[in-house]
Amino acid sequence: MSETRTVPQVVLGVGGGIAAYKVCELLRRLTESGHQVRVVPTADALRFVGEPTWAALSGRPVSTGVWDEVHEVPHVRIGQSADLVFVAPATANILAKAAAGLADDLLTNTLLTARCPVVFAPAMHTEMWEHPATRANVATLRSRGAIVLEPAEGRLTGADTGRGRLPEPSELFEAARRVLRRGAADPDLGGRRVVISAGGTREAIDPVRYIGNHSSGKQGYALARTAAARGAEVTLVSANVSLPDPAGVRVVRVESARDLAGAMDAERVGADAVVMTSAVADFRPASSAASKIKKSGAAPAPVELVENPDVLAGLVASREKEGLAQTIVGFAAETDDVIANGRAKLARKGCDLLVVNEVGGGRAFGTEDNQAVVLGADGTAVEIPFGPKEDLADRVWDLVVPRLPS
């Protein structure tokens, strides 16, 4: 009987782009967290970061060519022995070669022999990322089960800015960790587009003050990260959240409930699943002062409130009106009679699943852990025990996947 291997084996493929320098930090995080990493850079990658750097950070010799250590057949063995192949930066050239099945260097040979999860983290100029050829290559790779993360938006080479930036190393590490955590499981959200809202809305009283809530957005961000690790194309509508953008996730920022409603209405089109984790203010001031309200010595004027749109109910109504095949998930934060209030809300909103969690007293808001009961429109009730929000996110997706449109 063969010995069980406990140390995750990661092949880190490095493409020839300026963002290769950021991958050094990803490599450091992987090795310091106990992963054994074999770096396979392309020849062009070594023009940006040299072989000694990769060897020093990984603690292992660097594999650079199919003719190195020929007796070990590296072009076959490296991919066969890996638990994860993670390519960063994945240039337009690498994506094209991988999609076409070319094998003209050690990295592309490794991609063809790997039977483990494969993740590409693209980085290139916006025009290259948006080119129809690149989009077709990405679609091909995703259709074969590869996870192709969406690039970040920001500063590129020189003075250019736009989509195509390599996500931050900390978020790339989280993406790698989540994929490894699932092991050899297929990316069951591959080919799916999901839209998630997170955070808490703010309703302005004046330019300084607002009506808000305690939502940190951590649960919504966990759902976005786990969906990306399971192969989905993810859009995250983020309301007033001070968290780093998850790797491979497109982020749309909003502030008020009406902003959120508009963004979700626009992004829901073409989505297979919509998940509303954000805490939306039920009311907003009828008017917002143009300048800061000052103390006058007299009692302040009362703030007249008007009702905000019901975003979740609106999403369900739009789905029904348009006859869309779409799974909609809501979240309910309750302080008492959790199940009874949750069932009433599920019936009122009309969504497919409602994740109900008890809040207050240090629970849920701003914490790293959560627990919930997931109520289904079909009468089911699934308890998710107390644990990391990442675990809860995965359990929610486990319940969503079989309900997705075929």
UniProtKB/TrEMBL annotation:
Residues 9-176 form the Flavoprotein domain. InterPro entries: CoaB-like_sf, CoaBC, DNA/pantothenate-metab_flavo_C, Flavin_trans-like, Flavoprotein. The gene is coaBC. Its cofactor is FMN; Mg(2+). GO terms for molecular function: FMN binding; metal ion binding; phosphopantothenate--cysteine ligase activity; phosphopantothenoylcysteine decarboxylase activity. The keyword Metal-binding applies. One of its GO terms (biological process) is pantothenate catabolic process. Residues 190-400 form the DNA/pantothenate metabolism flavoprotein C-terminal domain. Residues 194-406 are annotated as: Phosphopantothenate--cysteine ligase. This is Coenzyme A biosynthesis bifunctional protein CoaBC. It comes from Nocardiopsis aegyptia. The keyword ATP-binding does not apply. Its EC number is 4.1.1.36, 6.3.2.5. It comes from the Bacteria. CTP binds at D282, K292, P309, D310, V311, L312, F331, K345, K349. Transmembrane segments: none annotated. PANTHER family: HOMO-OLIGOMERIC FLAVIN CONTAINING CYS DECARBOXYLASE FAMILY (PTHR14359), PHOSPHOPANTOTHENOYLCYSTEINE DECARBOXYLASE (PTHR14359:SF6). GO terms for cellular component: phosphopantothenoylcysteine decarboxylase complex.
